[in-house]
Design brief:
The complex is a heterotrimer of chains A (321), B (554) and C (341).
Chain A (H helix, E strand, L loop, with lengths): L1 H28 L4 H6 L5 H11 L5 H14 L13 H36 L4 H15 L2 H15 L14 E2 L2 E2 L1 H35 L2 H8 L4 H13 L1 H15 L3 H7 L4 H10 L3 H29 L7
Antiparallel strand pairs in A: 1-2
Chain B lengths: L1 H23 L19 E6 L14 H10 L4 E2 L5 H4 L3 E2 L7 E3 L4 E5 L14 H12 L17 H5 L9 E4 L2 E5 L7 H5 L9 H5 L15 E7 L3 E6 L13 E6 L3 H10 L4 E2 L8 H8 L6 E5 L2 E7 L11 H11 L2 H6 L6 E3 L23 H11 L7 E5 L5 H16 L3 E5 L3 H8 L8 E7 L6 H8 L18 H12 L2 H19 L2 E12 L4 E2 L3 E2 L3 E2 L5 E2 L1
Parallel strand pairs in B: 1-10, 1-11, 15-16, 15-17
Antiparallel strand pairs in B: 2-3, 4-5, 5-7, 6-7, 8-9, 9-10, 12-18, 13-17, 13-18, 14-18, 19-22, 20-21
Chain C lengths: L3 E12 L2 E13 L4 E5 L6 H9 L7 E9 L2 E2 L5 H7 L4 E4 L13 H10 L6 H14 L5 H4 L9 H13 L5 E5 L7 H18 L2 E6 L2 H7 L2 E6 L2 E7 H6 L4 H8 L39 H5 L5 E3 L2 E6 L5 H13 L8
Parallel strand pairs in C: 3-8, 3-9, 6-7, 7-8
Antiparallel strand pairs in C: 1-2, 1-4, 4-5, 9-10, 10-12, 11-12
Classes of the chains: A mainly alpha (321), B alpha+beta (554), C alpha/beta (341).
């Protein structure tokens, strides 16, 4: 177990380096000059040279990358934004809870939708319930996320006025006229719905398929032959096995979603990692881009590791060799 | 299986229903609850901006919404009056007691500082407050973009390069501020009206953190009480301000980050008072139909900006004697109405010149007919004849937005009429700018735009068309226009002061447009402001746009 | 009274292609403590018969009729809750593939415990003790410790033993074993059969052994039912079946077994393949493949009748007694495959 963890951590390090290097390479291949942008439209060549030096862009790219790593590992700092001078650590760590609020709330909502729809559809295949469920799946998978967001925002937020049409309120602090758990949840209702729809559809379909497959397994027949009631067969034998792959997928999807539920955050003005990523890319703000990349990579690595350990714990056939 | 067919039909009905629903969905300005209006002086004015400012530190902020904000908070040596139109672009002394005394062949300026101006902390504004601002702007630790405007101040570059600890050419003694220049530069006053040069108090002067200070104390009618990045900025009345500028509301709140769609909804319901980031372009027509233009809800005002097609004089197509006739031909051929239409309802005014109306010195040219007719096309064709080289050209659109691409296609069509087969190329805006500013770039035509930093024609003519400025990269003169006769005229005009200066620039503008034609300008952008029902006292300053100090709540 | 008496059991499945008549009028009975072997080719309906008795067919597509009287109670018309009481308790079933018949994510102890706790009001500890007892009884070493192991930690043969333990844990009167040794190798097969034999003595349960392997039947059965195409074609005590078979299909089955005691040059082959149960052939279902078929076979369906002089031996074939006896002699001599002399 210990050796397994060590190996995973080493691979995580390799992955981390690969991802950050690729980000650097992509950034420097694009022919746009952050120093020029920072110095302004009237800048003379001298001023641009100065700006380039201030931003550390006058060093060779590999050296810049090495400095970035050094600063990250030793100072635990991601540097300062090229566009607004803010401390990247602070900005990323302020944005992360917003995305986390969106994602974790969204996960709960989508599982609350996907589990009943998936299981009930599997238990009554080709019934009206099943067909209705799969229609929901079709709509959920086909409807673009931003379109769903815009429609909900217009219909419910604006026309009906049942929820706010945008904005984020901090869970604990009051800032900008709102705060606290009630405000927090109230503002996240539409974003949660928007974010969860697609995943709910995907998971409903997957759960339905897995459950239908598992219902045909021999050990389910054995359970019935033992005289178990259907509810026990379902709970203890069918679902216990059918939902195993869901655990893996959930872990991976959370990790990826933490990197930025971009559309939802933009439509609803949630200042999370997704919105931050879009902003920093369009302003060629390398430290901020790397900050988001680093944080997202770490999340994905951690979540994948948790999922693997969890899976080994719940499925006795898996042994971490 | 007939069951599957039934399912497909059901899905088709749902899909059709959704399409119908989208088609009949009313625009967002109906059926929503209205906020009750109170007639109060004071109150809180709510503004929504779609993208956050970079920083509210006067040394760092170089962003239009940020400058609009600082127009309400800063006090400067000279400033633009809270008026519309031409009056609004005429500099008047603010903290300076009067216009400065200029001596030494235009190289020494002495300002006398009025007493009575105070920061919101209660501290007095002195000559040192301005000297501090200049020094801080030149400090390499801060790395302010202001340094680009300080190149004529003696010792500024030395300090920016780290060779001096203060600017040698700036001295503050008592209530006198002296600024020495390296060369006579009559647009210095206009430069000093930039927000970079607002007065700062000693605490801010000592703060050399490159991250800046968002809530630096200020001496204008308002000050910044707080800022939460990506969320809000709150301005409050500076109770120590006793100057002549207006100050009606008690508090100004900026909410950051909502999309244009949401901003429009909020102004409609009254949750917000002003959509600073604009509303979706397609909605302006409906708003204009509903509220009229400049009648209280929707204001359309001219900005000091110009959009143009630059013609790369370095290229074979424009070599030698070909340049002028071909440039003129393009000016006759360009369908400015069609191009402007792509930008949306009332998005701008057609032009053919370099200077925008509203810029001091602007004189209407009447050089080219603005409407395209068979007659104008014929004239264009005849002018272009024999000057189209191999008949092929490359045109770069202004970024990759749908509007820009459509406009480029129209330009392509227009150029086809005069015998040029144009290849349209599209890059993202940042990349386009980078490429076209590099000398030797392989475009013949490029669509670009320029907004005034301050209201002096130097900021357009010299910056954008003087061949003396050309270098290997980072060129603003993207027409690579390098005509010795005009370079001399531009230099001479820059040395003039007052009415002769503006007259010279006005004449230069007409001359270059008519005779050299390195550009085909097409649009002066209009600012379209949508405000709430309770917004009153709307004033549009040509340089800083909507005036937050003047605004009031009905 | 017989422990289980099956009368005219019929099971039809509704499928997209039509109605499949998987079991068509099957009758047999079994006494307490005895072993009945049901033999036949794949798809002849032997498994479905037992699944029908247990009520384990998918409800939506199944139409059953007939009677399955277990201690006088008709299982086919029992309520779901009554059936659940009986399953795993009075009647237990073990299945063919031990690799997939146990839930991979639950411990063996828990699965055995589940079987007990469903039918007995005991504590978990008592259930566990009983589980260990059964594991010992089926011959699994270190039974106590093994209770906490998972199915994948057992070999195939061990798993089948666990299945048997699970079936016997509540002392059922009847154990239905659906091809329990088919998936195992020969030595393990022998062990399992021995085990079943021993347990039958110990626990006193009756066993229905479904198999396609006549060797298994010879080893363990008291009475044999031969099924073909959803019908019973011969039924006899085991000795009579092997020494005096009275149906061409049975001769084919027996004749295809290699033997060491005779000098057989060729084995009997039954040409063709089993018929579709959607549209079975008219008349005797075996007639298309039967070397002895004549007109009557193609027109009428033979009825299961006793062999003259042997009340316990039933067969369904129109062939006359003489031919049957003659062919049987040739079969016993090992020369059935050769041309008649």
């Amino acid at each position: 177990m210990f050796r397994y963890l060590i190996r995973r951590l080493l691979w995580a390090g390799v992955l981390f380096i690969a991802v950050t290097v690729v980000t650097y390479v992509i950034f420097f291949i694009i022919p746009a000059d952050p120093a020029r942008l920072a110095a302004g439209q009237r800048a003379t060549p001298d001023e641009i040279v100065r700006a380039r030096h201030f931003l550390g862009l006058d060093k060779p790219v590999p050296v810049q990358y090495a400095l970035f790593l050094k600063r990250l590992v030793i100072d635990h700092s991601l540097g300062h934004s090229f566009t607004n001078r803010q401390d990247v650590n602070k900005v990323v760590l302020t944005a992360a809870p917003v995305t986390a609020s969106l994602v974790f709330g969204g996960v709960i909502l989508w599982m609350m939708l996907a589990l009943p729809i998936g299981v009930l559809s599997a238990l009554r295949p080709r019934s009206l319930l099943d067909r209705g469920g799969m229609m929901f799946v079709l709509i959920g998978i086909s409807a673009p996320v931003f379109w769903v967001g815009l429609i909900l925002q217009y219909a419910i937020g604006f026309r009906l006025g049942w929820t706010p049409n945008s904005g984020y309120c901090d869970l604990l602090n009051t800032q900008g006229g709102c705060g606290g758990p009630a405000d927090w949840a109230y503002h996240l209702i539409l974003p949660w719905m928007t974010f969860a729809l697609l995943f709910a559809a995907i998971y409903a379909r997957m759960i339905r398929a897995n459950t239908m497959d598992t219902m045909n397994e021999d050990y389910v027949r054995t359970a019935r032959a033992k005289g178990a009631p259907e509810s026990q067969v379902l709970r203890s034998h069918v679902l216990r096995n059918a939902l195993l792959p869901v655990v893996t997928m959930l872990g991976m999807d959370i990790g990826i979603a933490l990197g930025g539920a971009i559309f939802t955050e933009t439509v609803f003005n949630l200042p999370g990692l997704g919105k931050l990523a879009v902003q920093s890319i369009s302003t060629f703000d390398l430290p901020m881009i790397e900050g988001v990349v680093v944080f997202t990579t770490l999340c994905i690595i951690v979540f994948n590791l948790i999922v693997d350990l969890l899976y080994a714990w719940i499925d006795p056939r898996i042994r971490l060799a | 299986m007939h069951r599957k067919l039934w399912l497909s039909l059901f899905a088709a009905v749902i899909g059709a229903g959704l399409l119908v629903a989208a088609a009949v969905a009313a625009p967002s300005n109906s059926g929503a609850p209205q906020v009750v209006k109170h007639a109060t002086a004071g109150g809180t004015f709510n503004i929504e901006i779609t993208s956050d400012v970079t920083s509210m530190d006067p040394a760092i902020d170089y962003y239009v919404p940020g400058w609009q904000l600082s127009y309400a908070t800063a006090c400067k040596l000279v400033n633009y009056p809270d008026k519309e139109g031409a009056a609004g672009s005429q500099l008047v002394p603010e903290v300076a007691a009067g216009l400065p005394t200029i001596s030494n062949n235009g190289k020494t300026y002495v300002f006398t500082i009025r007493s009575g101006y105070k920061f919101n902390t209660g501290e007095n504004v002195t000559a040192k407050s301005f000297a501090d601002a200049l020094n801080r702007d030149a400090n390499p630790k801060i790395q302010s973009p202001a340094i680009a405007f300080m190149d004529v101040i003696a010792g500024a570059n030395a300090m920016a390069d780290g060779k001096a600890s203060t600017i040698s050419g700036v001295k503050a003694a008592g209530n006198k501020l002296t600024i020495q220049l390296t060369t006579a530069s009559p647009d210095l006053l206009a430069r000093l009206a930039l927000p970079f040069f607002s007065a700062i108090n000693p605490a801010t002067a000592a703060n050399l953190n490159p991250a800046g200070d968002d809530t630096a104390p200020s001496c204008g009618p308002y000050y910044i009480q707080s800022r939460v990045p990506n969320k809000e900025i709150i301005l409050k009345r500076n109770t120590y301000y006793k100057g002549p500028r207006p100050h009606n509301v008690n508090e100004i709140d900026f909410k950051v980050g909502n999309t244009q769609v949401v901003t429009e909804q909020n102004v409609t319901t009254g949750t917000a008072d002003y959509a600073n980031g604009g509303v979706p372009a397609a909605d302006y027509k409906a708003l204009a139909d509903k509220y009229g233009v400049n009648k209280g809800r929707l204001f359309v005002k001219p900005t000091l900006s110009v959009y143009y097609v630059a013609m790369n004089q370095d290229r074979p197509l424009f070599k030698g004697a070909n340049a002028a006739p071909l440039g003129q031909a393009v000016n006759w051929a360009l369908d400015r109405r069609a191009i402007l239409d792509q930008a949306g309802y009332l998005a701008g005014v057609r032009t053919t010149q370099v200077l925008p109306p509203g810029m001091p010195g602007y004189k209407a040219c009447h050089c080219y007919q603005i409407n395209v007719t068979p007659g104008t096309i014929a004239k264009a064709k005849s002018l272009a004849k024999g000057h189209t080289g191999d008949g092929k050209a490359v045109l770069w659109s202004m970024g990759n937005t749908p509007t820009a691409v459509l406009q480029a296609q129209i330009m392509q069509f227009n150029l086809k009429q005069i015998g040029l087969d144009v290849d349209v190329q599209t890059y993202t805006r940042g990349v386009q700018i980078e490429k076209e500013q590099t000398r030797g770039a392989d475009f013949d035509f490029t669509a670009d735009g320029w907004g005034a930093d301050y209201a002096d024609p130097y900021d357009f003519i010299n910056v954008l068309l003087s061949g003396a400025n050309l270098q290997a990269s980072n060129n603003n003169n993207i027409a690579y226009f390098n005509n010795p006769k005009y370079n001399k005229l531009m230099l001479a005009a820059s040395r003039l002061v007052g009415a002769p200066r503006y007259a010279a620039y006005g004449a230069l503008d007409v001359d270059i447009t008519k005779n050299a034609a390195p550009w085909a300008a097409y649009r002066n952008a209009s600012q379209r402001d949508y405000v709430s029902a309770r917004t009153g006292c709307y004033v549009f300053n040509p340089v800083f746009e909507m005036d937050y100090a003047a605004v009031c709540i009905k | 009274m017989a422990l289980l008496e099956v009368r005219d059991l019929t099971t039809h499945f509704r499928t997209d292609d039509g109605i499949v008549k998987a079991v068509d009028g099957v009758s047999f009975s079994i006494e307490k403590g005895k072993t009945l072997g049901i033999v036949g080719e794949s798809g002849c309906g032997k498994s479905v018969t037992c699944l029908t008795i247990m009520g384990l067919n998918p409800k939506k597509m199944t139409i059953s009729s007939g009677e399955a009287l277990f201690k006088g109670e008709d299982l086919l018309h029992a309520s779901s809750s009554r059936l659940r009481e009986i399953r795993g308790n009075d009647v237990a079933m073990i299945f063919q593939d031990p690799m997939t018949s146990l839930n991979p994510v639950h411990k063996i102890g828990d699965q055995l415990g589940e079987a007990i706790l469903l039918h007995r009001d005991v504590t978990k500890r008592q259930a566990r003790a009983r589980s260990a007892e059964l594991l010992k009884a089926v011959g699994i070493p270190h039974a106590e410790r093994r209770l906490d192991d998972y199915p994948h930690q057992f070999s195939g043969g061990m798993r089948q033993r666990v299945m048997i333990a699970m079936a016997l844990v509540n002392d059922p009167d009847l154990l239905i074993a659906d091809e329990p040794t088919t998936a195992l190798d020969v030595t393990t097969q022998a062990q399992i059969l021995n085990l079943l034999d021993r347990l039958q003595e110990e626990f006193g349960s009756a066993i229905i052994m479904i198999t396609h392997d006549l060797g298994v039947v010879a080893e363990i059965a008291d009475e044999v039912v031969v099924m073909y195409a959803a019908k019973v074609i011969e039924r006899a005590p085991v000795g009579d079946l092997f020494r005096k078979p009275r149906h061409p299909y049975t001769w084919g089955l027996l004749g295809s077994l290699p033997r060491l005691d005779t000098d057989t040059e060729r084995l009997v082959q039954i040409p063709g393949s089993p018929p579709s149960l959607l549209n079975p052939p008219a008349g005797c279902r075996f007639n298309p493949r039967c070397a002895y078929a004549f007109d009557r076979c193609r027109a009428e369906q033979p009825v299961l009748e006793p062999v003259p002089g042997e009340a316990e031996h039933l067969q369904a074939c129109f062939l006359d007694e003489e031919t049957k006896e003659r062919e049987n002699r040739r079969l016993q001599a090992g020369s059935l495959a050769e041309e008649a002399s």
